[in-house]
Amino acid sequence: MNKTVDADFLALPLAAVSDAAISTAKDAGASHVDVRIERTRTGLLSLRDARPETQSDESIAGVGVRVIVNGAWGFASSPEISVDVAKKLALTAVAMAKTSKPLSTELVSLVSEPVYANQTWVSDYEIDPFAVSDSEKKDRLADLSDRLLKSSGVNHTSARTMFVKEQKHYADSYGTSTTQQRVRLQTQIEAISIGDHGFESMRTLAQPAGFGWEWMGNKHWDWDSEIAELPALLAEKVAAPSVEPGRYDVLVHPSNLWLTIHESIGHATELDRAIGYEANYAGTSFATPDKLNKLQYGSKLMNVTGDRSTSHGLSTVGFDDEGVAAQRWDIIKDGLLVGYQLDRRIAAVVDRDRSNGCAFADSPAHVPIQRMPNVSLQPNPTGPTYDEMVASMEDGIIIKGDKSWSIDMQRYNFQFTGQQFHRVKNGKIVGQLKDVAYQATTTDFWGSMKVVGGPSTYVLGGAFNCGKAQPGQVAAVSHGCPAAIFDKVNILNTVAEAGK
Fold first, then answer.
1. Residue 374, pLDDT above cutoff 80
2. Residue 194: CB partners within 8 Å, gap ≥ 6?
3. Global pTM?
4. Which of 3.10.100.10, 3.30.2290.10, 3.30.70.420, 3.30.300.30 is the CATH number of 7-239?
């Protein structure tokens, strides 16, 4: 397991730059100063029909200085990392705070956090994807694509992998200093069928995660087996009947349920959103603070945690972008709303003693804001296996893989589709359906959860591209969950709905 930060990042004048910014800003009147020195490298490779289509390798680096002066924010950043630049940024940030003070509607303050001096943290990965040759990456994707193209029912394939290495040095005026490095990778491979039936596709269910290139072997995800099964699944989908709308018991696989968690729980329990400080991209939230410890969010089988510590989680860190140590906490307990996601500013606004470490900025040019941790539905410790769950269903539908979705600006009314829809009758899978979407309100849906799978059904899903704020920022986040069965969910026919 790789546990060292790259030497070339450590060779940057990290301490000298942060010390210069902090001392300069304090001398100019700042009561709080924090400095982030960052470098993020993003690689992308895509293939069409097993042939290279797009390739890129981009890096963003720089330093950002944030201050509080007389209860007002100030911020400045630069792509140049040097002591002289740090001093200039500090003075600019202080000047910005003084300029904005007359327009401020609040006195900004941050809750306290213990000091963590000279701390280093590296995520759990084995093979740096940037150390793997382009030809090796291309050959792996081409091989998997070629296997699909050998099937007569597959006309085209699309394969795409994205890999990121994020490095951050944080220091503040209280004495905290942390240096971190994390790696993440996402690969999707899609099989496409074109014919008299029109256009149909199906892609792999593999999720993005905090792995290196080892994710593309078969140790952590069985790519070979999934690729072998995909053509037959696609052919069955092409020939499948369109769903009859109505109410069905629905078994939602983790490859689909993670997104429902993200949209209806993750965004809804961001406290800045719930109190109206944030509405960009995803709106506000129905789960307002007056409902804390009162709102029955779902059935008593529902236990949801927030954390920044899950191994291989996309939101996993050692410390957040305000120097707060990674934590785990309850968001929903026995179906009851009991917690929110906090950064240090929002924690102070609502009189909490401590942040739970949810501050993040996606580049040195952006200020840290409250961002989603890994928000996960916990499995039933004694719950059934996936096969046992299927066998328990008399009349229902299994939904796998994510596709399109829609949710209102209060995170309350929604509908989701998927990649695969399997019809179940009397405990047996009898074929696929298509044109399926499930629709509900957040509390009705989670209230209808009647079976939660055991630990063997648990999968860590997630996304690279959760958007928030203005100017917009993007963050990666994971959502773990088991398979779960929901009672009498409203199923729509997407073709019929589109025609209305």
1. yes
2. 155, 156
3. 0.96
4. 3.30.2290.10
